[in-house]
Design brief:
Layout (H helix, E strand, L loop, with lengths): L2 H4 L16 E4 L2 E5 L12 E6 L3 E4 L6 H11 L3 E5 L10 H9 L2 E4 L10 E2 L5 E4 L2 E7 L8 E5 L4 E5 L17 H13 L6 E4 L5 E2 L1 H28 L2 H6 L10 E2 L25 E2 L18 H8 L8 H17 L3 E3 L9 E3 L5
Parallel strand pairs: 4-5, 5-6, 6-7, 11-12
Antiparallel strand pairs: 1-2, 2-3, 3-4, 8-9, 9-10, 10-11, 12-13, 14-15, 16-17
Helix pairs in contact: 2-3, 4-5, 5-7, 7-8
Bound molecules: zinc ion.
């Protein structure tokens, strides 16, 4: 029997997220916001209690005793399953505490420090309680172990941090992966039957999933083009020009890397030692950099690019946005569009591949 057929009580999907105030969003679906608001968590982490006579909790949240006790109190002894979307500290750690209080079975994609689920779920697996079934959908990208959960029959999709309301998901390498994130977004557009609403790990209920998912994909693609344009432009900008903007910087001995001197390419072809005194790294006096042709592009760092790429984002968030920029650059490197000395190092240098810009 579908949950919506069981309940007659009042509910409102569009209630605001207020920590500590349980909100009945839908028949058999109650949201409880944990008291952990912040830049990364918005109003706080959403825990969802799903079912009627028997309950499953999605994302019990951070290890905050008052939040976990509130979940247990609302459950009134009926919580038998705990499903976690991913291992991050604002979603998973309370699973162990809530399991101790309730005796519930915990489930997630994989075991990791601080979260050791009783049951491991693969894509398509069903987690059942009496009257409700959740289907796991593997959606790596934000983290390597991320699952969304579809409430079967009602077609409500619990998205964890794959999609948030009111803020942009951060994809932080190396566990986060932008190429996988994009693939996991496209996957949601192919699910049948499609979701009727998204219930995120942070923020409010969202209608029209197809429109939302498509707009997030478009936004990421737009950002990738901004990254590409910035990389092309900055890599052709004489270093002296860039450094002159950096009034306090050490302009004397900054190292730049020629595109053909990556750690991955031409390692053995360094015939001109005089020109390459640092085996691949080259000190570039400003006076020599009056004009830069395609053959003499310079490697650009994430710090060089961040203010250009995220000029529409408050500067206070740039320290976080650097991770998503890194993730975009890694994706473009995997696709052969961009080169890097070491794409797994955040402080490496990047440049356009070939003569494509
Ligand atoms: Zn989160």
């Amino acid at each position: 029997m579908m949950l919506s057929a069981v309940y007659s009580e009042h509910f409102d999907p569009y209630q605001a997220c207020i920590p500590g105030e349980p909100a009945k969003l839908f028949p058999g679906v109650t949201r409880v916001v944990a008291p952990n608001p912040g830049v990364m968590t918005g109003p706080g982490t959403n825990s969802y209690i799903i079912g009627s006579d028997e309950l499953v909790v999605v994302d019990p949240g951070p290890e905050l005793a008052e939040h976990v006790h509130l979940l247990a109190d609302i459950g009134e002894g009926r919580i038998s399953k705990i499903a976690v979307t991913h291992k991050h500290l604002d979603h998973a750690p309370a699973a162990a505490l809530l399991a101790r209080l309730t005796g519930a079975e915990t489930a997630g994609f994989t075991r990791s420090p601080g979260f050791e689920p009783d049951r491991l779920l693969a894509n398509g697996d069903i987690l059942s309680v009496q009257g409700a079934e959740l289907q796991a959908i593997y959606t790596p990208g934000h983290s390597s172990d991320h699952l969304c959960y579809m409430l079967v029959g009602e077609n409500l999709l619990f998205t964890g941090d794959h999609l948030m309301q009111g803020s942009t998901v951060v994809v932080a390498p190396l566990d986060g992966d932008m190429a996988k994130y994009m693939d996991s977004l496209r996957l949601l557009l192919e699910i049948t039957p499609p979701a009727r609403a998204l219930l995120p790990g942070h923020g409010m209920w969202m209608d029209d999933p197809a429109r939302i998912v498509s707009s997030v994909i478009e936004h990421r693609q737009m950002r990738e083009e901004v990254v590409w344009e910035a990389l092309c432009r900055l890599s052709k900008t004489p270093q002296a020009t860039r450094l002159s903007l950096d009034k306090d910087g050490d302009q004397g001995g900054r190292l730049s890397r020629r595109p053909d001197e990556s750690g991955d390419q031409d390692k053995s072809t360094d015939g001109d030692r005089q020109h390459h005194p640092h085996r691949g790294l080259q000190v570039v006096p400003g006076s020599e950099r009056e004009s830069i042709d395609d053959d003499r592009r310079q490697g650009i760092s994430i710090d060089d690019m961040i203010t250009t790429v995220y000029r529409d984002v408050p500067e206070s968030l740039h320290s976080i946005a650097r991770y998503s920029l890194w993730a975009h650059l890694r994706k473009m490197t995997q696709e052969g569009r961009v080169c890097a000395a070491d794409m797994n190092g955040m402080s490496t240098l990047w440049w356009p591949a070939g003569l494509s810009c």
